[in-house]
Design brief:
Helix content is 32%, strand content 24%. It is an alpha/beta fold. It folds into 2 domains: 220 residues, Glycoside hydrolase/deacetylase (TIM Barrel); 71 residues. The strands form 5 sheets. Strands 1, 4, 5, 6, 7, 10 and 11 form a 7-stranded mixed β-sheet that branches. Strand 17 and strand 18 form a beta hairpin. Helix 2 packs parallel to helix 4. The longest helix is centred in the middle third of the chain and has 19 residues. Bound molecules: zinc ion (ZN). Zinc ion binds next to loops.
């Protein structure tokens, strides 16, 4: 009996060491809905996190606690890509009000060119500090898959240099434009000593690929309170750490997942995956499962989203993969 209780305790504490990283773009009622959240709804997100006593960590703290496998329970990190003007006008005042930090990934050429939709370096200097920190989103926001190795390096290092010159940023954290990478980019980014984020949904845990960390997109329907609450309360699928090649070489691609521990029949039955047109799920044994879409994936970026109810049925485990077909243009 004691052994059983201990096992439960161990598995609960393992599950808890994770953090939901959220990805925003615009905080606006006027910008495209597909990448925007209204300032009013964003405030509801922050209120929910405050009332429910979530620990909203700075990005740097997430990364150091992840390294030590010491992430707290109820952990959330706020991130925004592209450094749009609405961060300055609409998000920053709310971050200050609720005393919550946000990491902003900047494609630096757009700032150098003074694009109206973007913040200026001056505005960024003004708000950077306790509540806002700026990180690397490459210089030109190109599709990295179209570039050679030297060009990828230039894109990353040019942006890092601009961020250092303008804002003093030294931490090497990158968000891939469009969340796109391949095995050679993942390896190169690792060799350049960067931690990097993709755009596939999921929870950051010790099983995450440090060069392709997941984030939950927060825009349109995904940003609504019901979806938001589900995401921030999600658990990482308890998988063995494995680097996945995000490029589709055989269409539809096969996803092989390996669980840390044997999954009971009810757990296996509760495991489900979603893709356009449906998926076939094949358990090879009680730890290994194969997932393949029923039809070829037709978009440039495609998702397999897998979920499984936790033993208590109160929460969901989540794992998502973004599959890229580089031959399809944006
Ligand atoms: Zn972007």
């Amino acid at each position: 009996m004691l052994k059983f209780v201990l096992l439960i305790l161990i598995s609960v504490s393992l599950n808890a060491k994770s953090c939901a990283v959220l990805l925003y773009h615009h905080f606006s009622d006027e910008m495209p809905k597909s990448t925007s959240i209204s300032p009013k709804l964003f405030e509801q997100h922050l209120q929910y996190l405050q009332v429910n006593e979530f620990k909203v960590l700075p990005l740097k703290t997430l990364l150091s606690k992840l390294k030590d496998n010491d992430l707290p329970d109820r952990c959330v990190v706020l991130t925004t890509d592209d450094a749009y003007q609405s961060i300055y006008t609409n998000a920053y005042p709310l971050l200050k009000k609720y005393q919550m930090p946000m990491a902003v990934f900047v494609a630096t050429q757009a700032i150098d060119k003074n694009y109206k939709a973007m913040m200026s370096w001056n505005q960024m200097r003004e708000i950077q500090g306790e509540y806002v920190k700026f990180y690397n989103h490459t210089a030109a926001h190109s599709h990295l898959l179209d570039l050679n190795k030297a060009q990828v390096k230039t894109q990353i290092e040019q942006a890092q240099n601009s961020l250092y010159q303008a804002l003093g940023t030294t931490d090497k954290v990158l968000a891939y434009p469009y969340g796109e990478s391949n095995l050679s980019i993942l390896k190169q980014v690792e060799e350049l000593d960067y931690i990097a984020f993709g755009q596939q949904s999921g929870v950051v845990s010790k099983a995450s690929d440090l060069q392709n960390l997941p984030r939950f997109p927060m825009a349109a329907n995904f940003a609504k309170m019901k979806s938001f609450q589900l995401k921030v309360n999600t658990l990482p699928m308890p998988l063995v750490k494995k680097r996945i090649n995000p490029i589709i070489d055989k269409n539809p691609p096969m996803l092989n997942l390996t669980f840390e521990i044997s999954q009971s029949k009810p757990q296996q039955d509760g495991f489900n995956c979603f893709a356009n047109g449906g998926v076939d799920i094949n358990w090879k044994d009680d730890k290994n499962v194969e997932i393949v879409a029923k039809k070829p994936l037709m978009h440039r970026r495609n998702k397999y989203n897998c979920t499984m109810p936790s033993q208590s049925k109160e929460k969901y485990y989540w794992h998502s993969v973004q599959w890229i077909n580089p031959s399809i243009a944006e």
